[in-house]
Amino acid sequence: MKTRVTELLGLEYPILQGGMAWVADAQLASAVSNAGGLGIISAMNLDANYLRSQIAECRKMTDKPFGVNIMLMSPHAEECSRVVAEEKVPVVTTGAGLPGRFIPMWLEAGVKVVPVVPSVAIAKRVAREGACAVIAEGCEAGGHIGELTTMVLVPQVADAVSIPVIAAGGIADGRGIAASMMLGAQGVQCGTRFLAADECSVPDSFKQKVVAARDIDTMVTGRRLGHPVRALKNSYMLEFAKHESNPDISNEELEKFGTGALWRAARQGDMVTGCVMAGQAAAMVKEIKPVRGIITEMFEEAEKLLKEAQKWVN
Asked: How many angstroms separate the CA atoms of 154 and 261, rounded?
């Protein structure tokens, strides 16, 4: 499947792997890139030394294009942004903030800039500032989310900007890819589906939690703090929601309660007191398999569906 995204980023398939904190490491990124997509390393909240080591590790495992995700809320966002430029990483994606102050530096270094956007206004803004594509992410996604759904956001962004649009949020199979193309996207970004990949380094308990998820098994907390997060329901998420609705608990106490929760789930396998970040698409993830199998299966299904849709039109 050749689109503007495959041409722009040098890919076999127009699919990006989401920049999931404590999940999107060199191992997963290189596997996605070797399978024909764009693997992403998450800089998350760690410092430049961590990111530089992950970039070096990824380059040992793949000679294909890969990217880095900069979470702009991170206290290390500036130094990690410089590392992306210094290392001349092929692609940078951004989230949880506006990347405008870093875009000139990245463009000068030859880095392709692809921000995640939650609205039409932000998509227009980053396009003016030099982004070569945008990821329109609906609130079905796991982790930090906006308010609009993928179905509503993607076509509006596609109408609003001339650069390629990549759909994200709730996409876990070929049906999601085909639907995204119909909405005007030129590619997709998937996070939750890759949680159940053989090459994903999260503990087996995390993967099994995703595979076992039902359609109603995610919830959103954190709106009171201004950065809502979607994750799978468990004791921790229910307790966070209880604290969030309690006026006697300060925002500072709430922030403290959230510190380290994702790390406990993604690195220690704690499914009780950890935050199991995953999107609504978890309910469509039925098995754990290699990255290459995930990608080829998704696109075989998508191409079949798009051909069938063309027959309906004719």
From this structure: 31
187, 5 contact by CB (below 8 A): yes
* Residue pLDDT, tens place only, 270-279: 999 999 999 9
Sign of the Cα torsion 41, 46, 52, 53 reads negative
- At 141 the three-state DSSP class reads coil
φ, ψ dihedrals at 78, nearest 5°? -70, -50
In this predicted structure, what is the pLDDT of residue 310?
80
Residue length of the chain: 314
Rounded CA separation 45/64 (Å)? 26
- Residue 103 neighbours by CB distance under 10 Å: 20
pLDDT tens, residue by residue, 72-109:
989 999 999 999 999 999 999 999 889 999 999 999 99
Q: What is the pTM of this model?
A: 0.95
| Sheet of strand 187-190: strand arrangement | 15-17, 187-190, 165-168, 134-137, 112-117, 91-95, 66-71, 39-42
Q: What span, in angstroms and rounded, lies between the C-alpha atoms of 20 and 45?
A: 11
Q: Which helix (H) or strand (E) holds 144?
A: strand 143-144
Mean of per-residue pLDDT scores for the chain: 96
The pair phi, psi for residue 44, each rounded to 5°, is 40, -135
Q: What are phi and psi of 70, to 5 degrees?
A: -105, 115
Can you read off the two tokens belonging to residue 63?
Answer: 């000679």
- DSSP-assigned letters across all residues of 235-298: HHHHHHHHHHT-TTS-HHHHHHHHTTHHHHHHHH--SSSS-----GGGGG----B-HHHHHHHH
User: Three-state DSSP class for 97?
Assistant: coil
Q: In whole angstroms, what is the distance from residue 293 CA to residue 275 CA?
A: 28
